[in-house]
Amino acid sequence: MQAVSGAGYPGVASLDILDNIVPLISGEEPKMEEEVLKILGGVSSDATVCAPLSNLRVSATCNRVPVIDGHTECVSVEFAGAPPSIDEIKQCLREYTCEAQDLGCASAPEHIIYVAEEEDRPQPRLDRNAGAGMSVTVGRIRECPVFHVKFTLLVHNTVLGAAGASILNAEYAAKKGYL
To answer: Model-level pTM?
Structure first.
């Protein structure tokens, strides 16, 4: 569920989005399916190109929703082997750190992932600014009757999804000596 700010300027016409959900964002679904594989993948051995994760299947549906900022995803996951417990998943998410944090990049938030315990979270108005907009909030982590686990996540699309990520990437590249 993508916020109206994700459409850019001039965006979605107000009469198209008020009291409505638009069930198609042209080109977003294949892009999202490919980007997830790149984000979870790695880098080629010569560090010149992204090496997408090849053993993962992703299916996405993208809807434009009447929210100003904040993209929300409802995710179901099936593990290759026996699934970890819900408590183990929450602990793993809470303890996760990224290399940008380890390198001391100024834009990296204290917590990359916030785990929301409230049953009705995350919500764009309440959670999109977690970590100054640079964190992902994950909530409603629970067993899934079809796959192993399902959860809801929220990210601030115009901060972490765009400008903030660009700044963090530049800081990371500088710390790694790529610039």
So the answer is: 0.91
